Each structure stands twice: as structure tokens, then as C-alpha cells.
């Protein structure tokens, strides 16, 4: 069908308005933005996958893993192709058998060992029936294990048959038997899992079938199954049953036991393998010889059971190796003892051994263990040097750029370093596993030194794995090149041998087989280094090395190259297996000792990452546990146990030590402890805080954050208990930041008592206690507690009072004043008694007469000496047990009266403060609208009118209170003044004359209190006591004696007296300056300073008294005040109204 062409009429309108170009530019810009964003994302991923991963590393968390193991996609039949059909068949059979053996070995290690190694846990706290349920869950695993064992038996029989068939006709494959040795390790591993709960399970179910919900008719077949499993698996006879199988099968034409050629070749190969293995045991180049030794012992027992002959010389040689290898760890905590095995499995040979030799075998194990324990520190030291130097070489060679001209040398050195790393890992792993498992199996206690050494080795082991993993990208790149290089070296050696065979003109079938085998090895090496191809090379060369195709100097290098090829091709897997520390699950008891060691040697704190990495190796094994409903239970239990130990032995100790260090550092002035680092040593715990977070299960353990949180919590809680310690804990926070770099949170707690303070009601009820325990400060209007058992002193100020009034209402103010009035009545009674006392009254009358007679001579000033004499004279009348005179007690009485008046003043100030706070939102206090009238005008509801009425009432109260307040001082003067001034209390008129001695007494007391502030024992220290000035001013007002007191000109007399003495001291200083008598000059300086202090204290008292007098209208006398009241009453038209109302209110 022809394609129609589009006519010009249908073409797109070609008019270009520029929109296409704009749209293109927008799309291009969006694409550029996308590319930039994508590039930045890729850069982020690249940075995340950087080579230097750091200390926190976990294989399971790596976003990308490099799997270096090549995978073979061709089958064995496709790989084994030569023109020699017979050889093809033989190699194929043995390659298939060897592959099967390796698969079985892998399966037993990954599946059956990991599941069976835990078994059914014995727990005394377990609920009745739980162990039977666990065993029930385990039955399916035992069934699988039974099938697996049967499969192993079949493979062993097949392998023996194939070898017997081969050796009945030819002698082509002398080394093929080597593969079967590996297989017996599988049998040993399975043989070690003997569980003993089957019979208990059956009995429990039989006795109570209803509890387990199982019908009785189903129990019979189940019992048969269990008995079969018990007979096959749980009697510890798996290996015995394997070697005692019937290998002869005349029906298929296979005779094994009568095959002398096979028997001879079998024995020859055992001896050959043993010779190779024994020479490497205990050497630095040892890598898998112990496993092969176990295989050789297995082959020896198999040979004995098939052919019923014993090579006594070989038997003795096998037992002699026990001196070097007392035990072989098969997996986890499963230890295989070769001497026990050989004696039990070959009893015919054991009889030949004398009793002395048998006893020496038993003692040899203990001696070997003791020897190992003694050699541990030396091993640790040497391996520490080896591994650290190896790590440096590894880092050096990996970071170095490869040069094209030295590429081959560089690859060889890399190959050698990789192999060396695996060898070190194998050596360290062997020491740890063998030593720990020997201690456990022989039930011998480990010393702390041994535990520390073994833990050091575990760290070295994980450091090797870490180094490989950290450089995994470079290692992966190198492995591919190294395998190619090793393959080319092997191919060159095989090519030389091949030429030698071809150059020989003599033809024979055997020579043809050798040539075909060499060709097969070449073909296998010309490809990826998979395990199948390497197996083919091994099998082909076991044929190809016959007829002296290789010279001795060629064969050894070839074997070494192939061994390296095996190691490099499986590098990651080999490293993983050798560095796996899953066995530590069975040796968890060493962890507390290890943590104590880390804590004691904080400098090496970073090594703890390696130990936690080793502990994580236990997790994959636990995932295979079958006896529990889910493996999570086992994981949680393990996680909990490790964390509890970690908290107890490191974190909690660290927290307490840091707290102790901070406390002692802050309180160094108390000299609580000897902190001399030269005597008590020094431990720098700051290293723990530079550690990166440790990964364990689903959490990161951040030691720094943990300790910071602990200190934050402790400091906060302790500050809430004792707020006065806030400064101490603040200082400790700063010190924690400076010394340890701990960024701590501020507590944000108040640094003193809360605003509420003591409640007004409490003070009112206990006014007598309050005025004696608190000191008044006139200028700041604040009360300060005199003494306290705590480290802080309570204070009460206007805000506290205002808060209380807001809580209880303004009505409490009048009640408080009434309580104060009652208190003052009692105190004035005591005051009157003191003034009425004959000793006091007579002295005062005497002093008044003296002043009147001598005032012209003393310039109208009361002499200071007279007041001082009065103060001293009172002491002769007697003192209290605590050393106080009657004048001291009288001073305290006046101070308490003054404190009560100060409290009344504070109540009034607090009320004004409260009212002003409440009314601050009223715009104009002079012009407040009447809300009730406005509501009525609008005709609103009755409820609204009522609310408006209440609002008007509240506003009226607040306005009156805030505008004037109640003059409580005036009331308290008015209520007591008439009584004080009455004729019957004439003895009180002498009060003004006792004020000078009282001031002298007060100043001495005040200076003593202030000096105590600078002393360590601050009992009785105080810096203010204005209650005295307040009390004197109040009483003078009540007695209307301001003018009488002022006539004494007392404070002028005091000032003149001290100025005169100070001038005399200055003159004396000028005179003595020439004599240069230091002691005299010091005395004079002290005298001057003392006089200065006394003068200053008198001045302060004068100012306080002057201030206090202002509150009581000291400028007016009683007569003037009465006249003022009359004038006011006359102008208001209510004579006497004001006075009577104030009296009534108070009463």
C-alpha cells in the first residue's frame, strides 16, 4: 500500500512567534537542573561508600556488598571435554563426588550446626511443659538431620565403590582419595549433637496426652519415629555406623574388602597425606592442616573397618601429633580430641599401646593447655607486631598507584600480603578457639591474664577482617588481576610439562591419559577461577603429574601457585570464616573481665569496637535456632545480657567516676581526698568520649551521650532537692565541658527560693516566731532569715506579700494588723516591766539628773563615756547562759517590736502593689464610669445588671485601696500612745535616756555579726538589723519624746568622740613614722581602722533611725498633731470623727 504524502495545505503553520524557542530553553534548563541534582545525589552516594568507612562498621548494614566469588554456569559435563573419553568419565565421576562432598560440608556448617549447636535450653525457671514444647519444635530439625545423615552414608559408600572399581583395573588416580577425607569432618560434626530429651518428651506426653492435645492413636507412630531418630542420631554412633556400613556389593560386582590393590593404594595415600599435613602443623604457613588431620584420622578408621588391618607405625605417628594438636575445634564450642577418637574407634591398635603411653596421653592434654596459657602473653605480643605491620603494608600497597612497568611485581606483592593476612587470621583464630574450648571442655578456670590476652587476640582477628573490608573496593579490583596472573603462571608450568610429554615419541595409553589430563587442566585454567574449574585442575593434575611429567623443582612451585589461587579466589569467604567469632557466644563470661580491662586502660578505648564486632558474629548463628517459637527470643535475651554487662562494667562505672572527679575537682578547697597524680595515679577517661558510637543490634551505643544524659539527670534532680547548690552544679557542668567535652544542658531551675515565699497567713499565725527569726532591711523592704540549718537563707519581700494577698484577698491585711496589735501588747508589757525595774529606773534617773546638771559644760551633748559606762554596768546585774546582758535582751525586744512594725509596713506596700497590678488596666482612676447605669440604660437582663453592679463594687474597692491605702502606722500609734503617755506609766518617760546605751550595745552587736560573715563558721552572722531603728523610732513616737531625745545631741557627741580619737591616732602616727617601729605602726593602723568601722556603723544607725522617724511624723509633737486633728474636724464639721473611727477599726 502506497504511503500518501502530506499536501502543503496540511503542513504546520510556519509562522514563528518565538514561543518554540522559549519552550525549548525552559525544557533545556529543567534538564540541566535535573542533571545537576542527580550528579549531587551520586556524589553523596559516592561519599557514603568511601573507602575510609571508619570504626563503626557492620557488614549487614553496607548498602552495597562486593561478592568476589565467581559463579560457574557451565555443568561439569560441559567443562570436562577431552578426546580421551575414558578419562572424561573418570574425572567427571570424581568431580561430581567431590562437589557433592563440598556441598554437604557447606550444608552441615550453615544449617545443621547452627541449629543444633543451641539445642533445647535448660532453664530452671521454665514453665512445666515448655521444655517438651521446645523439643517438639526440634523434631522437624531431627528429621531433616536424619535425611542428611542417610545422604552422607550413601555418598561415602558411592565414593568407596568408585575408588575400588578404579583401583581394581588401573592405578591412574593416586590422589583422588584426598577428597573423601574432608567428608569425614561432616560425620564428626553431626556426631557431636547428642540430645537427651527424647525419653522425657515421650514420658510427659504418655502421662498427660490431653494437656498436649494429642490423640493416643497418633502416639504410636510418633514414638516409632522418635525411637528411630534416637537410634540413628542420639546415641553418638553416627560415625561408627558410617564406617561399619557394608561396602562390599557382589551383586553389582564391587568387592572392596578383598581388593588388595585398593587397600595398598588407600594406605599409601593416607601416609602421603599425613606426611604433608604433619610437616605443616604448628608452622606459620599452616592454614587448613588441622581439618585435614581430622580427615586423615577418619580415613585411617575407615581403612581399618574395611580391610581390618592396622598400620601400627602410622597409628603411633597419628597419636604423636596429639602433642602438637591436643584438640581440633570443629565448629563453635565443639572440640574433637584425636587421641580419644583413635583409641575408641581402633580398639585393636589401642591394645598394642602400653598403659604408660595411654596415661601420658591424658596428662599431655593438661600440660599442653598449661603451656598454651603461659605462652599467651608472648603470642599476643608477637602477633600484635605482625598484624600491625601487616596492616601498615596493606594500607601502603593499597593506596599506592600501580605503575604499568611494575604491574606484575605489584600484583605478586599484593597476593603475598593477602595470603599473609589469611595466615595470620588462621593462626590467631586457632589459638583463641583451641585455648578457650580446651578450658571449657576440661572445666579448668581461666586466669584474668589469659582472658585479657585472648580478648586482645580477638581484637587483632577483627582488625584483620576490618582492614580487608575497609579496602574491599581495591581488594576486589586486585583479586581479578591476581587470579589471572596465577592462572598464567600455572598455564606456563603445564605448557612446559605438555611439551615434554609430546616430545617423547614413545606412545602408550598411560602417556595419552597424562597428556589428556594436562590438556583438561589447561582448558580449566583458561577461564574464571570458579571452584568447579579449580577442582577439575586438581583432579586432572593428580593424573597429569604421573610419569615424571614435572620435575621436582617445577612441581612444588605449581602446587604453591594453585594453593594461592584457591586462597585468592575465595579470599572474602576465607577471611570471613577465619575471622568469625561466633564461638564467643559460649564464652560470654570473658566479656565482664574484658570491659574491666578496657576501663582500666582507657587509652586503648577504641578497641572496644572490635569486641562488639566479634559479639555481633554470634547473631547469624542464632537466627537458625529451632527450639524456640521465633529466634527473636534468643536474640533479645542475648542483647539484654550483653547490655546489662556493658552497663554494669563500663557505662555505670564511667558515669560514677566522672561524677566523682567533677565533685572532687569543684570541692578541692575542702581537701577531701589526696588527688596527687604521682601518688594515686591518673586515669584519663576522656578517651571514651572521643569514641564513635558503637553499633550493636538495632541501636547505637553512644558513650558520650550516655554519660552526658546521666550527669544532666543527676545534676537536675539534685538541684531540685537543694536549690542553693545550683552554682556548684553549674560549675561542674562547665568543668565537664572543659575537661571531657561533654555538652550538658542547663537545668533552667531558679537559683533561689520561688516567688511565693512564706505565706502571709503562716507569718500572721506565728508572728512571735517570725520577728525573732528574721531581720529587717529598711531600705530594700526585705526580711532575711537570721540563721538556718540549710545552706540557704529564706527571704521575704513585697512581691511575696503581694502574691499572698492576691491568693487570700485584701481582707487579710486588716486581720494581719490586728494580730500584730495583739503581739505588740504582749511585748509592751515586757517593755514596761524592764523600764519599771529599780536597777534600770534608778540608773536612768541618775543619768537624766547628771545631764541636766552638766549640759552647759558638755555643750548640750550627752557624754559617750556615760553611755558606755551604762552598757558595761548592766552586765554586772547578771548575764544569761549564752552570755547576754539585760540590755542585750532589751535591745532584742525593741528589735522584735521594730520587725513587727516593718512587717506592717510591708503588708501595706504589698497591698498597694497587689491593687496597682489588679487595676492597671483601668484607663483613668479619676473618671470611672458606672457600668450598672449604662447596663440599665441599654435595658439588659437582670443577670447582666447584677454582674455590672459587682464590677462597679470591685473597681470602687480597688480605686480606694490603691489611691490612699490604710495608714496602719497611724492606727498603731493612735491605739498605744494614750496609754504610754498616761500618768500611771510615768516610768516609761525615762526611755529617751536609755537610747544612747542601747545604740552603743547595738553597734557592738552589729559589728560582731558583720565580722562573722568572713569566718568559716557563720553562726550568728548578719549584715542588717533595721528592726532596732524602727522599734526605737516607734517607741519614741508613742512616748512623744523626739524632742527630749534630740536634746541629747547624741549622734553629734558620738561623731565628735570618734573624730577626736582618730585625729589623735593620726598625730601619733606622724610622730612614730620616724622611729620605723613596724609593730607599733601596725597597731595604730588597726586602731584607726577599728575607729573608722565604729564611726561608720553609728552613722548607718543614725541614717536608719532618721528614715524610720519619717514614718511616724517625727517633725510634729503630740500637741501639734492634736491641734491639726481639731482643725481638720472643724473644717469637715465632724468633731473627733477621724480619731474615734480609727480606734474602733483597730479594736
UniProtKB/TrEMBL annotation:
Ranges where the WASH complex subunit 7 central domain occurs: 583-926
Gene Ontology biological process terms from the UniProt entry: endosomal transport; endosome organization
Gene: WASHC4
Pfam families: WASH-4_N (PF14745), WASH-7_C (PF14746), WASH-7_mid (PF14744)
GO cellular component terms, A-Z: endosome; WASH complex
Feature: compositional bias, Polar residues: 1130-1147
Protein known as: WASH complex subunit 4
WASH complex subunit 7 C-terminal domain sequence ranges: 944-1113
InterPro entries found in the cross-reference section: WASH-4_N, WASH-7_C, WASH-7_central, WASH7
Region (Disordered): 1121-1147
WASH complex subunit 4 N-terminal domain boundaries: 33-188, 200-581
Amino acid at each position: 500500500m502506497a504511503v500518501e504524502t502530506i499536501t502543503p495545505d496540511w503542513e504546520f503553520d510556519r509562522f514563528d512567534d518565538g514561543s518554540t524557542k522559549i519552550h525549548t530553553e525552559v525544557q533545556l534548563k529543567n534538564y540541566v537542573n535535573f542533571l545537576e541534582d542527580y550528579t549531587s545525589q551520586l556524589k553523596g552516594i559516592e561519599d557514603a561508600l568511601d573507602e575510609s568507612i571508619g570504626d563503626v562498621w557492620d557488614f549487614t548494614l553496607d548498602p552495597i556488598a562486593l561478592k568476589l566469588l565467581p559463579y560457574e554456569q557451565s555443568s561439569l559435563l560441559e567443562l570436562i571435554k577431552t578426546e580421551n573419553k575414558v578419562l572424561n568419565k573418570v574425572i567427571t565421576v570424581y568431580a561430581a563426588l567431590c562437589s557433592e562432598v563440598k556441598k554437604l560440608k557447606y550444608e552441615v556448617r550453615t544449617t545443621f550446626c547452627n541449629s543444633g549447636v543451641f539445642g533445647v535450653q535448660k532453664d530452671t525457671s521454665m514453665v512445666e511443659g515448655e521444655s517438651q514444647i521446645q523439643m517438639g519444635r526440634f523434631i522437624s530439625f531431627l528429621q531433616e538431620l536424619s535425611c542428611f545423615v542417610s545422604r552422607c552414608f550413601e555418598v561415602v559408600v558411592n565414593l568407596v565403590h568408585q575408588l575400588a572399581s578404579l583401583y581394581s583395573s588401573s592405578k591412574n588416580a593416586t590422589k583422588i582419595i584426598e577428597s573423601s577425607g574432608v567428608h569425614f569432618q561432616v560425620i564428626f560434626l553431626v556426631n557431636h549433637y547428642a540430645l537427651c530429651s527424647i525419653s522425657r518428651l515421650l514420658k510427659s506426653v504418655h502421662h498427660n496426652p490431653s494437656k498436649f492435645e494429642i490423640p493416643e492413636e497418633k502416639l504410636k507412630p510418633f514414638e516409632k519415629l522418635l525411637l528411630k531418630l534416637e537410634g540413628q542420631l542420639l546415641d553418638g554412633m553416627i560415625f561408627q555406623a558410617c564406617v561399619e556400613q557394608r561396602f562390599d556389593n557382589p551383586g553389582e560386582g564391587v568387592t572392596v574388602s578383598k581388593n588388595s590393590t585398593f587397600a595398598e593404594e588407600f594406605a599409601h595415600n593416607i601416609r602421603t597425606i599425613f606426611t604433608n599435613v604433619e610437616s605443616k602443623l604448628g608452622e606459620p604457613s599452616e592454614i587448613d592442616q588441622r581439618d585435614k588431620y581430622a580427615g586423615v584420622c577418619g580415613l585411617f578408621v575407615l581403612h581399618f573397618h574395611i580391610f581390618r588391618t592396622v598400620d601400627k607405625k602410622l597409628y603411633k605417628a597419628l597419636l604423636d601429633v596429639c602433642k602438637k594438636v591436643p584438640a581440633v575445634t570443629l565448629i563453635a564450642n565443639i572440640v574433637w580430641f584425636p587421641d580419644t577418637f583413635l583409641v575408641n574407634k581402633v580398639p585393636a591398635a589401642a591394645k598394642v599401646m602400653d598403659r604408660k603411653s595411654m596415661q601420658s596421653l591424658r596428662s599431655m592434654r593438661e600440660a599442653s593447655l598449661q603451656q598454651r596459657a603461659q605462652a599467651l602473653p608472648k603470642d599476643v605480643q608477637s602477633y600484635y607486631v605482625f598484624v600491625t605491620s601487616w596492616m601498615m603494608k596493606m594500607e601502603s600497597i593499597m593506596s599506592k598507584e600501580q605503575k604499568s612497568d611494575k604491574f606484575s611485581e605489584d600484583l605478586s606483592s599484593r597476593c603475598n600480603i593477602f595470603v599473609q593476612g589469611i595466615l595470620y587470621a588462621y593462626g590467631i583464630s586457632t589459638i583463641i578457639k583451641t585455648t578457650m574450648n580446651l578450658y571449657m571442655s576440661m572445666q579448668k578456670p581461666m586466669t584474668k591474664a589469659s582472658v585479657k590476652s585472648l580478648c586482645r587476640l580477638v581484637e587483632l582477628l577483627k582488625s584483620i577482617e576490618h582492614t580487608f573490608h575497609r579496602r574491599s573496593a581495591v581488594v576486589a579490583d586486585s583479586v581479578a588481576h591476581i587470579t589471572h596472573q596465577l592462572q598464567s603462571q600455572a598455564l606456563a608450568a603445564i605448557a612446559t610439562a605438555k611439551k615434554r610429554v609430546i616430545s617423547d615419541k614413545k606412545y602408550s595409553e598411560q602417556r595419552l591419559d597424562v597428556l589428556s589430563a594436562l590438556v583438561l587442566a589447561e582448558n580449566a585454567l583458561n577461564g574464571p577461577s570458579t571452584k568447579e574449574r579449580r577442582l577439575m585442575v586438581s583432579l586432572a593434575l593428580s593424573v597429569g603429574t604421573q610419569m615424571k611429567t614435572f620435575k621436582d623443582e617445577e612441581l612444588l612451585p605449581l602446587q604453591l601457585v594453585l594453593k594461592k589461587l584457591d586462597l585468592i579466589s575465595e579470599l572474602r569467604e576465607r577471611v570471613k570464616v577465619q575471622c568469625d567469632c561466633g564461638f564467643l557466644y559460649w564464652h560470654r563470661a570473658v566479656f565482664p573481665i574484658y570491659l574491666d580491662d578496657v576501663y582500666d586502660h582507657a587509652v586503648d578505648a577504641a578497641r572496644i569496637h572490635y569486641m562488639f564486632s566479634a559479639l555481633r558474629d554470634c547473631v547469624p548463628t542464632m537466627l537458625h535456632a529451632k527450639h524456640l517459637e521465633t529466634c527473636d527470643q534468643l536474640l533479645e535475651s542475648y542483647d539484654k545480657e550483653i547490655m546489662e554487662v556493658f552497663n554494669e562494667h563500663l557505662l555505670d562505672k564511667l558515669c560514677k567516676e566522672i561524677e566523682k572527679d567533677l565533685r572532687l575537682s569543684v570541692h578541692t578547697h575542702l581537701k577531701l581526698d589526696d588527688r596527687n597524680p604521682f601518688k594515686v595515679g591518673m586515669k584519663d577517661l576522656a578517651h571514651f568520649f572521643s569514641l564513635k558510637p558503637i553499633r550493636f543490634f538495632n541501636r547505637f551505643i553512644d558513650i558520650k551521650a550516655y554519660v552526658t544524659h546521666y550527669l544532666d539527670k543527676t545534676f537536675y534532680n539534685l538541684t531540685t532537692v537543694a536549690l542553693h547548690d545550683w552554682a556548684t552544679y553549674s560549675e561542674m557542668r562547665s568543668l565537664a565541658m572543659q575537661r571531657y567535652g561533654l555538652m550538658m544542658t542547663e537545668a533552667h531551675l531558679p537559683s533561689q527560693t520561688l516567688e511565693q515565699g512564706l505565706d502571709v497567713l503562716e507569718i500572721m499565725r506565728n508572728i512571735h516566731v517570725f520577728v525573732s527569726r528574721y531581720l529587717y532591711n529598711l531600705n530594700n523592704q526585705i526580711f532575711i532569715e537570721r540563721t538556718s540549718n540549710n545552706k540557704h537563707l529564706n527571704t521575704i519581700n513585697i512581691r511575696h506579700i503581694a502574691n499572698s494577698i492576691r491568693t487570700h484577698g485584701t481582707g487579710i491585711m486588716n486581720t494581719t494588723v490586728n494580730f500584730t496589735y495583739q503581739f505588740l501588747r504582749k511585748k509592751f508589757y515586757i517593755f514596761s516591766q524592764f523600764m519599771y525595774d529599780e536597777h534600770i529606773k534608778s540608773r536612768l534617773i541618775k543619768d537624766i539628773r547628771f545631764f541636766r546638771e552638766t549640759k552647759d559644760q558638755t555643750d548640750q551633748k550627752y557624754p559617750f563615756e556615760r553611755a558606755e559606762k551604762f552598757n558595761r554596768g548592766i552586765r554586772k546585774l547578771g548575764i544569761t547562759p549564752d552570755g547576754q546582758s539585760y540590755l542585750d535582751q532589751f535591745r532584742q525586744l525593741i528589735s522584735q517590736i521594730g520587725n513587727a512594725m516593718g512587717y506592717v509596713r510591708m503588708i501595706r506596700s504589698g497591698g498597694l502593689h497587689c491593687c496597682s497590678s489588679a487595676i492597671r488596666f483601668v484607663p483613668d482612676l479619676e473618671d470611672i464610669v458606672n457600668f450598672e447605669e449604662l447596663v440599665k440604660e441599654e435595658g439588659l437582663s437582670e443577670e447582666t445588671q447584677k454582674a455590672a453592679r459587682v464590677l462597679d463594687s470591685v473597681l470602687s474597692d480597688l480605686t480606694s485601696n490603691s489611691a490612699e491605702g490604710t495608714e496602719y502606722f497611724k492606727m498603731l500609734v493612735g491605739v498605744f500612745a494614750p496609754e504610754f503617755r498616761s500618768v500611771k506609766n510615768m516610768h516609761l518617760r525615762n526611755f529617751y535616756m536609755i537610747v544612747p546605751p542601747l545604740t552603743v550595745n547595738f553597734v557592738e552587736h552589729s559589728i560582731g555579726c558583720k565580722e562573722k560573715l568572713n569566718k568559716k563558721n557563720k553562726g550568728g552572722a548578719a549584715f542588717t538589723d533595721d528592726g532596732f531603728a524602727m522599734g526605737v523610732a516607734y517607741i519614741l513616737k508613742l512616748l512623744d519624746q523626739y524632742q527630749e531625745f534630740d536634746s541629747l545631741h547624741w549622734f553629734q557627741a558620738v561623731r565628735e568622740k570618734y573624730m577626736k580619737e582618730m585625729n589623735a591616732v593620726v598625730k601619733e602616727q606622724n610622730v612614730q613614722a620616724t622611729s620605723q617601729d613596724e609593730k607599733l605602726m601596725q597597731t595604730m593602723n588597726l586602731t584607726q581602722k577599728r575607729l573608722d568601722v565604729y564611726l561608720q556603723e553609728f552613722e548607718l544607725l543614725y541614717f536608719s533611725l532618721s528614715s524610720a522617724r519619717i514614718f511616724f511624723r517625727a517633725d510634729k509633737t503630740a500637741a501639734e498633731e492634736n491641734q491639726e486633728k481639731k482643725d481638720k474636724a472643724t473644717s469637715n464639721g465632724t468633731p473627733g470623727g477621724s480619731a474615734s473611727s480609727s480606734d474602733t477599726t483597730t479594736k
